[in-house]
Amino acid sequence: MSRVVFVQPDGTKQEVEATEGNSVMQAATANLVPGIIGECGGELTCATCHVFVDEAWTGALPARVELEEDMLEVTSEEPTDASRLCCQIQLDSSLDGIVVHVPKTQQ
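Below the sequence we write its predicted structure tokens.
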């Protein structure tokens, strides 16, 4: 199991447990995390699972693929260098405790 900490725009934190191999989006939707919609089910076609990865964790993730870069251009909130679609973040032991921030406009 891996832990994921979701930080809401008001600073509220929700820590959930997830199965390694699942995505951060799957962890969010399985635990009803507000603001993570995942309309496409992780198919990289909707951008409704946009998060800002906490600065302490950005270096632990692989680079964004071109399709993810394209989808980040249509998110509800202006993307930053820390922006990711959490359907593309696959959990493993190295990401145990990862912290992601939910965009204010994705509520």
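The first strand starts at residue 2 and ends at 7.
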